[in-house]
Design a protein that fits this description.
Largest sheet: none
Oligomer: single chain
Distance between the termini: 50 Å
Strand content: under 5%
Number of strands: 0
Helix content: 55-70%
Length: 314
């Protein structure tokens, strides 16, 4: 029984394995299990991976999730399970780097990473759990951190679709205000923040205020260009007039984040939570990046997890 090999017999086992692989022979589930368990007991996770790679090169991919038969799929499930056990053992010995390396190299799925995360309990190992969670969600998390490069007005909102400016009817001053709002919207879309600012000043000279939708368009331009001072002044004015909504808070938070005012951004996030408003994806993105920029990745990952629970991650 290969499963009974001790460390001194590994060399002989590997010679037999090389012969088996070179001859193109396929192993049954019991033999494969014995080989991997022998490597597990010896802590030779790299040797286990090397063995599986040799098998794959010879035409026997024991880890393939698309195995053609049920028996081969079960054999693959068994192999992945043993590799997960090896990774958990590495974590328990404090070797998180090797555990992550094994999971990545073997193409482990969510189950493997979750096993490693569970192995990081108790609290003293929480940082290891956070690292494993980051590895599992790395692509999505990095996308969140770069949200300001891909965010366009409306894309990260959970509120209804964009407000369309009213048209028709009205006298000269109403027409003038509508034209001004239309120009603000156009300049904001192309992120011409200075032009937006000058138009907003001009709008203050009319007897009627621009609509909340128009103000949010201005906030978008300020946010994307990091003009946090202008954003906070406008957002405060909207709050005082009872016009602030999710987009108002999201844009003002994003403006602080992009402008490097991460503590201010988190103040806005905390205020949103205290007001019992349900944060949008944009609000979460800005808060997550702010925590990360302040070196508080654990808090950032906790918010990222909350986004998933609220179905805000796309």
């Amino acid at each position: 029984g290969i499963d009974d090999f001790d460390d001194g017999e590994l060399s002989m086992m590997e010679k037999l394995l090389d012969y088996t692989i070179n001859e193109g022979l396929e192993m049954d589930k019991t033999t494969l299990q014995g080989v991997l368990r022998a490597y597990q007991r010896s802590g030779l996770w790299q040797s286990a991976l090397s063995f599986l790679r040799k098998c794959k090169k010879a035409g026997n991919d024991y880890l393939s999730p698309a195995a053609p038969t049920l028996s081969k799929r079960r054999r693959g499930d068994m192999a992945r399970s043993i590799l997960t056990d090896i990774a958990v053992g590495l974590v328990e010995r404090g070797d998180m780097s090797s555990a992550i390396g094994l999971l990545k190299a073997s193409g482990s799925g969510v189950e493997g990473y979750n096993s490693v995360i569970r192995a990081c309990i108790p609290e003293s190992k929480k940082q290891r759990a956070i690292r494993a969670y980051y590895q599992l969600n790395q692509d999505g998390f990095e996308r969140i951190l770069n949200y300001q490069n891909i965010w366009k007005r409306g894309e990260l909102r959970s509120s209804p679709s964009d407000v369309i400016l009213e048209s028709g009817g009205g006298g000269g001053e109403d027409t003038s205000l509508r034209e001004l709002e239309s120009e603000i919207a156009e300049q904001a879309a192309s992120l011409q923040w200075l032009a937006v600012f000058e138009l907003m000043l001009k709008a203050r000279d009319t007897s009627k205020q621009p609509s909340a939708a128009t103000k949010n368009r201005a906030l978008y331009a300020y946010a994307k260009t990091g003009k946090w001072e202008l954003a906070l002044v406008l957002a405060t004015n909207m709050q005082e007039r009872g016009e602030a909504d999710h987009e108002t808070y999201g844009c003002s938070l994003a403006a602080c984040d992009v402008g490097g005012q991460w503590e201010r951004a988190l103040d806005i996030f905390n205020n949103v939570q205290q007001m019992s408003l349900r944060p949008t994806a944009l609000i979460y993105c800005g808060a997550i990046r702010s925590y990360d920029m302040l070196g508080k990745r654990q808090k950032a990952l906790e918010l990222y997890s909350q986004m998933g629970a609220l179905s805000l991650r796309k």
